[in-house]
C-alpha cells in the first residue's frame, strides 16, 4: 500500500529473501488516489487483487508501453528480442530493472488469469 500510494501509510514487516513477508493489516482502510480519481481499500486477509489488464498496464506501466511502440518488432515480448526499446531503456537507466520485473510479473499473472477465464467459460459452454 505504501508503494502504491507513494508515501508512508502503514507499518510494514521485513520482507524475507524469497520476496515474501507477513501481512500486517488489522483493519480495513480506504485511500483516495488523486492521480487516477479512484479508491483502494487495504483489507486484512487479502494477499492479491486483480484489476483489468488495461488498468494495470495503463497506470502502472505507461513508460514501458510508450517504449514498446519503439521496438523493432510489433510482437516484442521485451525479453531477449533484438531491437527491444524496453531492454535498451533498462540498460540506459531510463526505467529501473525493478519496474520491468514488476511489469513481467503482472503480465504473467494477467495471462494466467485470462487462461483460467477461457477454461472456465469453455466448461460453462459445454454444460449448455
Structure write-up:
It comes from Helcococcus kunzii ATCC 51366. InterPro entries: P-loop_NTPase (IPR027417), Ribosome_biogen_GTPase_RsgA (IPR004881), RsgA_GTPase_dom (IPR010914). Residues 2-51 form the EngC GTPase domain. Pfam families: RsgA_GTPase. One of its GO terms (molecular function) is GTPase activity. The protein is mainly alpha-helical. It has a domain at 57-126: Probable gtpase engc, domain 3 (Ribonucleotide Reductase Protein R1, domain 1). It is built from five helices and two strands. It has helices at residues 2-5, 53-60, 62-68, 85-91, 97-127; strands at residues 29-33, 38-42. The protein has a two-stranded antiparallel sheet with strand order 1-2. Strand 1 (29-33) and strand 2 form a beta hairpin. The termini are far apart.
Short account of what is shown:
By secondary structure, the chain is mainly alpha-helical. The model has no long low-confidence stretch (mean pLDDT 78).
Amino acid at each position: 500500500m505504501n508503494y502504491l500510494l507513494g508515501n508512508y501509510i502503514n507499518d510494514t514487516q521485513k520482507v524475507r529473501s524469497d520476496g515474501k513477508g507477513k501481512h500486517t493489516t488489522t483493519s480495513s482502510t480506504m485511500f483516495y488516489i488523486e492521480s487516477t480519481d479512484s479508491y483502494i481499500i487495504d483489507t486484512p486477509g487479502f494477499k492479491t487483487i486483480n484489476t483489468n489488464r488495461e488498468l494495470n498496464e495503463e497506470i502502472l506501466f505507461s513508460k514501458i508501453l510508450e517504449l514498446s511502440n519503439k521496438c523493432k518488432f510489433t510482437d516484442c515480448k521485451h525479453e531477449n528480442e533484438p531491437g527491444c526499446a524496453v531492454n535498451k531503456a533498462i540498460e540506459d537507466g531510463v526505467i529501473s530493472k525493478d519496474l520491468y520485473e514488476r511489469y513481467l510479473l503482472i503480465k504473467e499473472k494477467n495471462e494466467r488469469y485470462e487462461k483460467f477465464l477461457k477454461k472456465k467459460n469453455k466448461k460453462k459452454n459445454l454444460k449448455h
